[in-house]
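Table S7 (text form). Paired inputs.
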Amino acid sequence: MVAVKSVFAPYIYVCTRMRVRKSKLIPREEYMRMLNMSLPEIIRVIQETEYKQEIDELSTAFRGIDLIEVALSWNLAKEYQKILEITPGNLKQFTRSYLRRWDIQNVLTILRGRMQGEKLGKIKEILVPAGSLDRAALDRLLAEDNPDRIVEALKGNRIYPVLSREYPATKESGSFSRLENELYKQFFSEIIAEGESGIKGGNQFLDFIRFDIDIRNIKTLFRLRADTFEEDAREMYIAGGVLSPADFTNLNTLQDRGEFIEQLKEKISNSLLLSLLDELKSEKVIHDVETRLTRVQLDQMERISKRNPFSIHPILVYLEKKRYEVLNLRALARGKESKLPSERIAEYLVV
């Protein structure tokens, strides 16, 4: 019995640490309070939270929205690295694999920024070096003369084959949606293969990944209905969830919203998602649909985490909730900077 406890002790320790960290995340009522504040007041509030060190360190070099952007990115990257350091065994491998998605986001942010002529400092502010590309690697990419050279500089990285294949069409069209989708297709294909490889805990990891794919495919279907994608619907499908390619294609052909949702519900078994789909029968703007789907995803992750308290799930829940805390604070700061009404900013918060 003592030996069994000693084997599980690192798992119990790290999962307990995740719950403590999660308890320190900004609660919903605090976001509602910040909606009625000015940007300087919001910065002062954030300075009293887990972001204090970054705000203090960066306040001599940055002001206002720039200070928020850099402090949030620095804090998120440092937090993710700390979690990797304390995560044991297979949990570390799954966590590291999950964090590789930041390579996609960072590279696309750099390419978009350079193609649109953004200043290097502005691009760097929102990068989060939490994947396999660390801060030094991202700085080297930023220093390249043009987007073509950025792509070539990634030769040898696992995302390079997709980048080199899809980048020419992206450069010509100016649209990143197909490139982004192809990169995530590769990411999910690799990560599913890893979960299915027989590593202990792989099935629990796959529970999260497959539901993530479901949410992404459903978001894509709603975007296609809102005509926000010009690409072939079949190319936007990501394999690995409950929807087959034929399901996805058929659902995209349905023009009546009620029929679309009823047929989608026939493919879904998750109770939270089924309830939300009923609510979405009435017309909603696309960002509201996506926000509500994200909330369901986080709620489902919480449920799975409570059923599996000493597994990969408490780690993934915290990683996702921390990410959305940063996105919420960024939305608040940008909204205030743009002088948007508080009720409009609130629509973009995942709380």
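Next pair, protein 2 of 2.
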Amino acid sequence: MAKRRGKAVLGFVIALSTLPAWVQSSLAQSYPVKPIRLVVPTAPGGGVDALARVIGQALTAAWGQQVVVDNRGGASGIIGAEIVARASADGHTLLITPTTFSSNVSLFKKLPYDSHRDFMPISLVSKEPNILMVHPSLPVKSVKELVALAKRRPADLNFGFGGIGSTASLSGALFKLRTGVKMTGVSYKGNGPAVSALVAGEVQLMFVGLPPTLPMLKTGKLRALAVTSQERSSFLPDVSTMAEAGVPGFEVTNWIGVMAPAGTPDGIVQKISAEIVKILASPATKERFKFYGATPDSSTPDEFRKFLDAEIERWSQVVKASNIQIN
């Protein structure tokens, strides 16, 4: 029964993707014809959820059809992604997903979907670096000093992260690979508890996004040593990049992007992408993103596809070299 259903879905996807151009154009012009379900594979209240609601409200206003945010957190985003992979390929069920979508490919032995075959990338929404944060009691004020300390005292440094497979844990793994230092990773149930542990001095350092840590930086409860992007962050212009700090080849991006099920007509994909690009370019959206410590960063579907492929390859190399796996 399951095999027959799978063949039926595959046949439907193929049929949609091979429709004549004029039919696909007609579908795009009339789209959307009903409310859109925007699946968020994280719990309510986080950064992905917040930006999803900004995008959802703007799409609702633009098209006159309600965009309903549906939080389906759990299993490192796999639950929500699977829902979209199995949805009808008509553009009325979309996924807005973070970086874990690309790292899950190598972290898990088996996924209930194919990350390449079962999704149509639509557009990036934002890209933000991690920040290398240390507890102020640590006697270092630069990455160079941190590396020297870690090599002198390899058993004394612990780095926190919100779960194996998070960008915080993978950033720590990449840091060890690039610098040759030895540190012990300590896993917490989410970034919130991990940041709290860093502020309390339970761990000495952490790679984490800016929004949850900006108040601690301003009050001196944490110290920023470097950002993990190619360019400095507009939110922290005085903090150097990892490359400037002497660790070349270190780039980690916390990205968020929108995808549709494979087989969604190209005209619909292009229409959604164009609207998201327009939304992200608006001053109102930029201001709302700034409130959440995020910067809009849109793309075409093809650009997003290339970016996604590069991210999957990047994390595959880090996971393999670090021997990380989630069963």
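The first strand starts at residue 36 and ends at 40.
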